[in-house]
Amino acid sequence: MKIRYKIFFCLLLSLFTLSCNKWVDVKPTDRLGEDQLFVDPAGYTKAINGVYVEMANTALYGQEMTTGAVDVLAQYYVLTSSTHRYFDHTTFVYTSGKVKPTFDNAWKKAYELIANCNVIIEKCGDAPSQKLPEPYYGIIKGEAIALRAFLHHAPSFWSYLQRGE
């Protein structure tokens, strides 16, 4: 009787461990791959729009590089409490555990977006194509190049501050 239970258990276990190719190949519904995105001008526009949306992240222009750390470094605010989140920013202690992540996150997010711009520029190619005809080619590629240049330059003031210039 024990042998039957063992055989039944092994058969049952083998049924659960079998997989179907359809189940394994699950594609996320909220993400598009390069092969799906860069097939027409609308896809290129979505890619550029994604860069603009991510620029609103709090590490960049959603907070820190507009009304957060930048305003504190410009001394628009007088912070007297040493427990305030930006107190070390006002005292220019850039190696502090509160200040360093601000700079690191700004650079990290900026370089993620620069990489996205590089992919868009690469997919645009050197000349208009069937996927990206002339009216759209110049606009999309131009915006991607401009965004890349902007993101390269924008966080550079952090490095000048760290060097004391």
Automatic annotation (TrEMBL):
Segment forming the signal sequence: 1-22
Keywords: Signal
Keyword Signal found: yes
Database matches in InterPro entries: TPR-like_helical_dom_sf
Keyword Nucleus: no
Protein name: RagB/SusD family nutrient uptake outer membrane protein
Organism: Pedobacter frigoris
